[in-house]
Design goal:
- The chain is built from five helices and five strands.
- It is α/β, with parallel strands linked by helices.
- A five-stranded parallel beta sheet has the order 3-2-1-4-5, with helices on both faces.
- Helix 1 links the parallel strand 1 and strand 2.
Length: 144
Protein backbone atom coordinates (compact mmCIF):
# COMPACT_ATOMS: atom_id res chain seq x y z
CA UNK A 1 0.00 0.00 0.00
CA UNK A 2 1.46 3.35 -1.01
CA UNK A 3 1.54 6.06 1.60
CA UNK A 4 2.22 9.77 1.60
CA UNK A 5 4.61 11.14 4.20
CA UNK A 6 4.85 14.77 5.28
CA UNK A 7 8.32 15.59 6.55
CA UNK A 8 8.88 18.65 8.72
CA UNK A 9 12.08 20.06 7.28
CA UNK A 10 14.22 22.93 8.53
CA UNK A 11 17.58 21.94 7.09
CA UNK A 12 18.92 20.61 10.43
CA UNK A 13 20.62 17.25 10.81
CA UNK A 14 17.54 15.96 12.61
CA UNK A 15 15.34 17.03 9.68
CA UNK A 16 17.71 15.36 7.22
CA UNK A 17 17.43 12.09 9.18
CA UNK A 18 13.64 12.38 9.13
CA UNK A 19 13.66 13.00 5.37
CA UNK A 20 15.94 10.02 4.77
CA UNK A 21 13.61 7.85 6.87
CA UNK A 22 10.50 9.01 4.98
CA UNK A 23 12.10 8.60 1.55
CA UNK A 24 13.17 5.07 2.50
CA UNK A 25 9.66 4.21 3.64
CA UNK A 26 8.12 5.76 0.52
CA UNK A 27 10.48 3.78 -1.70
CA UNK A 28 9.53 0.53 0.00
CA UNK A 29 5.78 1.00 -0.52
CA UNK A 30 5.60 3.08 -3.70
CA UNK A 31 4.62 6.14 -1.73
CA UNK A 32 5.46 9.81 -1.96
CA UNK A 33 6.87 12.57 0.23
CA UNK A 34 5.86 16.16 0.95
CA UNK A 35 8.79 18.17 2.28
CA UNK A 36 7.25 20.84 4.50
CA UNK A 37 8.86 23.93 5.97
CA UNK A 38 6.98 26.13 8.42
CA UNK A 39 8.19 29.59 9.27
CA UNK A 40 7.26 30.12 12.87
CA UNK A 41 4.94 33.01 13.58
CA UNK A 42 3.73 34.36 16.87
CA UNK A 43 0.15 35.60 16.92
CA UNK A 44 0.76 37.42 20.21
CA UNK A 45 1.65 40.86 18.95
CA UNK A 46 -0.26 44.05 18.66
CA UNK A 47 0.80 46.02 15.64
CA UNK A 48 -0.20 49.22 13.94
CA UNK A 49 -1.43 49.05 10.32
CA UNK A 50 1.99 50.22 9.15
CA UNK A 51 3.71 47.53 11.20
CA UNK A 52 1.29 44.90 9.86
CA UNK A 53 2.12 45.93 6.29
CA UNK A 54 5.84 45.70 7.03
CA UNK A 55 5.32 42.32 8.70
CA UNK A 56 3.44 41.00 5.66
CA UNK A 57 6.27 42.18 3.40
CA UNK A 58 8.88 40.47 5.63
CA UNK A 59 6.82 37.27 5.65
CA UNK A 60 6.72 37.21 1.86
CA UNK A 61 10.49 37.78 1.72
CA UNK A 62 11.11 34.99 4.26
CA UNK A 63 8.95 32.54 2.32
CA UNK A 64 10.79 33.39 -0.92
CA UNK A 65 14.13 32.94 0.84
CA UNK A 66 13.02 29.58 2.30
CA UNK A 67 11.98 28.41 -1.18
CA UNK A 68 15.30 29.41 -2.71
CA UNK A 69 17.76 28.56 0.05
CA UNK A 70 16.11 25.51 1.62
CA UNK A 71 13.50 23.79 -0.50
CA UNK A 72 14.98 24.00 -4.02
CA UNK A 73 18.30 22.40 -2.98
CA UNK A 74 16.61 19.57 -1.07
CA UNK A 75 14.20 18.88 -3.94
CA UNK A 76 17.11 18.89 -6.41
CA UNK A 77 18.92 16.39 -4.18
CA UNK A 78 15.89 14.09 -4.26
CA UNK A 79 15.28 14.38 -8.01
CA UNK A 80 16.76 10.92 -8.68
CA UNK A 81 15.51 9.26 -5.50
CA UNK A 82 12.82 7.29 -7.28
CA UNK A 83 10.17 8.84 -5.05
CA UNK A 84 7.64 11.50 -5.99
CA UNK A 85 8.45 14.54 -3.88
CA UNK A 86 6.47 17.74 -3.42
CA UNK A 87 7.11 20.73 -1.20
CA UNK A 88 5.05 23.04 0.95
CA UNK A 89 5.99 26.21 2.79
CA UNK A 90 3.64 27.68 5.38
CA UNK A 91 3.71 30.40 7.97
CA UNK A 92 2.41 29.91 11.50
CA UNK A 93 2.56 27.51 14.41
CA UNK A 94 4.80 24.64 13.30
CA UNK A 95 2.82 21.74 14.79
CA UNK A 96 -0.53 23.13 13.65
CA UNK A 97 0.67 23.83 10.12
CA UNK A 98 2.26 20.39 9.71
CA UNK A 99 -1.11 18.94 10.65
CA UNK A 100 -2.86 21.15 8.08
CA UNK A 101 -0.37 20.19 5.38
CA UNK A 102 -0.84 16.48 6.18
CA UNK A 103 -4.61 16.77 6.08
CA UNK A 104 -4.64 18.82 2.85
CA UNK A 105 -2.18 16.44 1.16
CA UNK A 106 -4.06 13.31 2.23
CA UNK A 107 -0.94 12.10 4.01
CA UNK A 108 -0.93 9.02 6.18
CA UNK A 109 1.98 10.04 8.36
CA UNK A 110 4.02 13.02 9.55
CA UNK A 111 7.74 12.47 10.11
CA UNK A 112 9.96 14.85 12.06
CA UNK A 113 13.44 14.63 13.48
CA UNK A 114 14.24 14.95 17.15
CA UNK A 115 16.96 17.46 17.91
CA UNK A 116 17.63 16.17 21.40
CA UNK A 117 17.11 19.45 23.23
CA UNK A 118 15.96 18.75 26.73
CA UNK A 119 16.65 22.08 28.35
CA UNK A 120 14.45 24.33 30.38
CA UNK A 121 13.16 26.05 27.24
CA UNK A 122 11.49 22.92 25.93
CA UNK A 123 10.01 22.26 29.38
CA UNK A 124 8.57 25.75 29.65
CA UNK A 125 7.48 26.33 26.07
CA UNK A 126 7.02 22.73 24.92
CA UNK A 127 8.51 21.15 21.86
CA UNK A 128 7.24 20.81 18.31
CA UNK A 129 7.37 17.02 18.66
CA UNK A 130 5.34 17.09 21.87
CA UNK A 131 2.73 19.43 20.40
CA UNK A 132 2.55 17.53 17.13
CA UNK A 133 2.00 14.18 18.81
CA UNK A 134 -0.96 15.69 20.67
CA UNK A 135 -2.69 17.45 17.76
CA UNK A 136 -1.65 15.68 14.54
CA UNK A 137 -4.53 14.33 12.43
CA UNK A 138 -2.42 11.35 11.33
CA UNK A 139 0.25 9.11 12.83
CA UNK A 140 3.47 10.92 13.72
CA UNK A 141 6.92 9.43 13.70
CA UNK A 142 9.75 11.15 15.56
CA UNK A 143 13.11 10.02 14.18
CA UNK A 144 15.92 10.10 16.78
Amino acid sequence: MSEKYVVGFDGSEAAKRALEFAVGRAKSNGGSVVVAHVLEWSPYSFLTPTELEERHKRRTEEMDRAETALMKPVLAGLANSGVTVESSIKYGNIAEQLGVIAKDAGASQIVIGRNGHSGIGSRVFGSVAGSLVQIAPVATTVVP
